[in-house]
Specification:
Elements lengths: L1 E5 L4 H9 L3 H9 L3 H22 L8 E3 L5 E3 L9 E7 L2 E7 L4 E7 L6 H8 L2 H8 L3 H21 L6 H4 L6 E6 L5 E8 L1 H4 L2
Antiparallel strand pairs: 1-5, 2-3, 4-5, 6-8, 7-8
Helix pairs in contact: 1-3
Length: 201
């Protein structure tokens, strides 16, 4: 299940979301220098607490989070409540939150932008096969295609709890199911989950 939300400038909404945060989250929020970064963190963390709390039948403010060995956050188990896996991503004015009661899950969203030499980035981060397919596209198709491939790769890596690196990429190549997301114009996104059925293929 994937939820999406847009940044809001409404003071009442922001105040309510801020009231749900822990002391550690407030400290993190205060360290952001840019307004957009503060808004993205506040929206993502506040909504995360609301949705996880609703699933676990626990007050949002009392939801506990921990971090795995590679920094991937997880929900601290609640006695008698079902397990829940989640992942969060944000870019531009869009926030995505993915949940699964069964599988480890990863989600990624990127605002499509032409602010750097993406061909050089593509050569570095795409696999040889992905890059060969990418350069065969018409030039006007390449930007969207690059961000589509990027978000697929990142969602897969996040599903296995790893960062985006050439060493980690191989770890996401098996056992991960990936799905492109239909988002508002100007954004590309994908969700990935660790699928036992794919592992056995």
């Amino acid at each position: 299940m994937v939820w999406q939300a847009r940044l809001t400038d409404d003071p009442a909404t922001q105040a309510y979301l801020a009231s749900l945060l822990s002391a550690e989250e407030h400290a993190r929020l205060a360290r952001f220098q840019q307004l957009g970064d503060r808004q993205r963190f506040l929206l993502a963390r506040g909504l995360l607490r609301l949705l996880v709390g609703a699933f676990l039948n626990t007050p949002a403010k009392r939801v506990g989070f921990g971090c795995g060995p590679f920094g991937k956050p997880f929900v601290v188990p609640v006695a008698g409540a079902p397990s829940l896996h989640f992942n969060v991503s944000h870019s531009g004015r869009l926030v995505l939150l993915a949940f699964s009661p069964v599988h480890e899950v990863g989600v990624d969203v990127e605002e499509v932008r032409c602010d750097q030499d993406w061909e050089a980035v593509a050569r570095r981060v795409l696999s040889c096969e992905e890059y060969r397919e990418w350069v065969r596209l018409n030039p006007e198709e390449r930007l969207d295609a690059f961000f589509r491939a990027w978000t697929r790769r990142e969602a897969g890596l996040k599903a296995v709890g790893l960062g985006f690196s050439s060493e980690a990429s191989a770890a996401s190549d098996s056992g991960i199911a990936l799905l492109d997301l239909e988002l508002r114009e100007g954004y590309q996104g994908a969700v990935g989950w660790r699928s036992p059925e794919r592992c056995c293929v």
